[in-house]
Amino acid sequence: MKSNLKTLLLLPLFMAFSAIGGMVKIPAVIGTVALDSMPALLIASLYNGRWGAIVAGGGHLLSSLYAGFPLGPFHVLIATEMAIFVWLFGYVFSNGKRVLAAILFFIGNGLLAGIPFIFILSSSFYYAILPSLLIASFINLTIAHFLYPSLRSRVKRGEIA
User: Fold this and answer.
1) How many C-beta atoms lie closer than 10 Å to residue 93's C-beta?
2) Over the chain, what HEC string results?
3) What is the pLDDT of residue 2?
4) Cα distances (angstroms) measured from residue 120 to each of 84, 102, 108, 132
5) pLDDT band at 1, cuts 50/70/90?
6) Residue 76: pLDDT band with limits 50, 70, 90
7) Of the given ranges (26-30, 39-43, 48-52), which has the lowest mean pLDDT?
8) Whole-prediction pTM
């Protein structure tokens, strides 16, 4: 991968978009469910899953910062989970299986991401946060889906230069 000014600016740009999306909250038990993963999904589909993972993890930490880190250090766990699910999305998407990539992200971010909190906090917390996570995952995927075609025509897949 080439290292140039465009590459240097692309990640912070999408991270800034993720920070803006992090300010658009989905009503939930805690205030960290937001539209912060949409830019990560876009960059993962336009370039690669590694970049999407970086944006997803950082975007969640920024979104949590806006909410005051209500789960404390557990937000590092959530950011890691989001990074893994966006990386998986980007990997499957780059292999031409777009619908499968979206389904895997929806299941991972909407259903599986909260499972550790059954053991950390309680099953009540998981069931309370589940509808918000599902709605946020769906909205993030839908917005990325509609933005992808117009952005794809402006960039070459996997290339920055």
Assistant:
1) 24
2) CCCCHHHHHHHHHHHHHHHHHHCCECCCCCCCCECCCHHHHHHHHHCCHHHHHHHHHHHHHHHHHHHCCCCCCHHHHHHHHHHHHHHHHHHHHHCCCHHHHHHHHHHHHHHHCCCHHHHHCCHHHHHHHHHHHHHHHHHHHHHHHHHHHHHHCCCCCCCCC
3) 54
4) 20, 28, 18, 19
5) very low
6) very high
7) 26-30
8) 0.90
